[in-house]
Automatic annotation (TrEMBL):
Database matches in Pfam families: MR_MLE_C (PF13378), MR_MLE_N (PF02746)
Residues of the Mandelate racemase/muconate lactonizing enzyme C-terminal domain: 143-235
Keyword annotations from UniProtKB, A to Z: Lyase, Magnesium, Menaquinone biosynthesis, Metal-binding
UniProt pathway: Quinol/quinone metabolism; menaquinone biosynthesis; Quinol/quinone metabolism; 1,4-dihydroxy-2-naphthoate biosynthesis; 1,4-dihydroxy-2-naphthoate from chorismate: step 4/7
Domain of life: Bacteria
Gene Ontology biological process terms from the UniProt entry: menaquinone biosynthetic process
Molecular functions per Gene Ontology: magnesium ion binding; O-succinylbenzoate synthase activity; racemase and epimerase activity
Name of protein: o-succinylbenzoate synthase
Catalysed conversion reaction: (1R,6R)-6-hydroxy-2-succinyl-cyclohexa-2,4-diene-1-carboxylate = 2-succinylbenzoate + H2O
CDD domains: NAAAR
EC assignment: 4.2.1.113
Cofactor annotation: a divalent metal cation
């Protein structure tokens, strides 16, 4: 296929509720939709994930714009690409900037699946027809409020509950949650807010039968996580530390992690995500799909990826209505009894809803 034209739409949407982490509160989500056209007029869609501020990784909405417009699009426009696996090789001379790369790469995957008349799930080697989903809950104002929110999600059918922890908001909260819900699949995400000096505190978490603790230590660490894992019964799941299949191999070999959260954006696209999945499957390390508070296009890519066989743990891809008054795809993503059906239509299997996209559109750039 030849990449003939790329439309880059800049959107800003407001989430129904602010999402609070150890870094602060987020309610505005600004992102780009990449629509990539081939020589026959087929088009594929991708959504960028970086936030306005660089607290999760170093990328932001503005660095993404700079990288996509000035470096990545010139590398693929008017180029012949026979398979989307080639895109990560074409982008390899550009260091990091994984979220910018992923936004373009996933659109080319969707385009490829559509051209070849298959679903994105099929094109990736997906096997499951429905995926199990959990929910990630931001920090709440009070524990009472948290208990109420958790109870509602359990009633809605979500398969596991993930809560954010940070120093000063951890053991007591987890203890109350466990008392109230003795048998729910529960996990905690620290987003790198502890150090090895907090060992005694982290060790206490072993009393609450958590499925795992996500990224307790520094965002770029695998050495201290290995030391910690040796002394914890609770499995560690790395998120921020894993940017590539090489990182995954090193972390598994060192014993830094027993589970990996794969985010397409963090690892630079679907080809790298699949490589990490395949390696983890070979090593007996289960994976799940993380989220970036995406709108529908990003969510659709997550669903296709999650249909691969080693996604054996519920991920963070909740339904559209959890985040948005109205999502940018049709139909919206719905969770029934804790499952999302993997769409069978070509490509991502959801149609961009141009009326809704228009409503949140700030500006558009066309490259041809
Ligand atoms: O619901 C989602 O999309 C993911 C929620 C989440 O946990 C999260 C949200 C923003 C940044 C980082 C993370 C994370 O997984 O660490
Ligand atoms: Mg995380």
């Amino acid at each position: 296929m030849i990449i003939k034209k790329i439309t880059m739409r800049h959107l800003k949407m407001t989430m129904k509720n602010p999402f609070v982490t150890s870094f602060g509160s987020m309610q505005e989500k600004e992102f780009f939709l990449l629509e990539v056209f081939d020589e026959n007029g087929n088009s594929g869609w991708g959504e960028s994930a970086a936030f306005q501020a660089p607290w999760y990784t170093e990328e932001t909405v503005q660095t993404t714009l700079h990288m996509i417009r000035d470096f990545l699009i010139p590398l693929v426009l008017n180029k012949e690409i026979s398979h989307p696996d080639e895109v990560s090789e074409i982008f390899a001379p550009i260091r990091k900037n994984n979220m910018a790369k992923a936004a373009v790469e996933v659109a080319i995957w969707d385009l490829y699946a559509k051209r070849t008349n298959q679903s994105l799930s099929q094109a990736l080697g997906g096997v499951t027809e429905k995926i199990e989903v959990g929910i990630s809950i931001g920090i709440q104002t009070t524990t009472e409020k948290l208990l109420e929110v958790v109870s509602n999600y359990i009633q809605e059918g979500y398969k596991r509950i993930k809560v954010k922890i940070k120093p000063g908001y951890d053991i007591e909260m987890i203890q109350k949650l466990r008392e109230a819900f003795p048998s729910i699949p529960l996990m905690a995400d620290a987003n790198s807010s502890y150090t090895l000096e907090d060992f005694e505190l982290l060790k206490k978490l072993d009393d609450y039968e958590l499925m795992m603790i996500e990224q307790p230590l520094a965002n770029d660490d695998i050495v201290d996580h290995a030391k910690l894992q040796k002394q914890l019964n609770t499995p560690i799941c790395l998120d921020e530390s894993i940017l590539s299949v090489a990182d995954a191999r090193n972390a598994i070999e060192l014993g830094s992690t027993k589970v990996i959260n794969i985010k397409i954006a963090r690892v630079g696209g679907l080809t790298e995500a699949k490589k990490i999945h395949d390696l983890c499957m070979e090593k007996g390390v289960p994976v799940w799909c993380g989220g970036m508070l995406e709108a529908g296009i990003g969510r659709a890519h997550n669903i296709a990826l999650t249909s691969l066989p080693n996604f054996t743990l519920p991920g963070d891809t909740a339904g559209s209505s959890h985040y948005w008054e109205e999502d940018i795809i049709s139909p919206e993503i719905v969770v029934v009894n804790g499952y999302i059906e993997v769409p069978k239509g070509n490509g991502i299997g959801y149609e961009p809803n141009m009326k809704v996209i228009q409503r949140y559109l700030l500006d558009t750039i066309v490259f041809e």
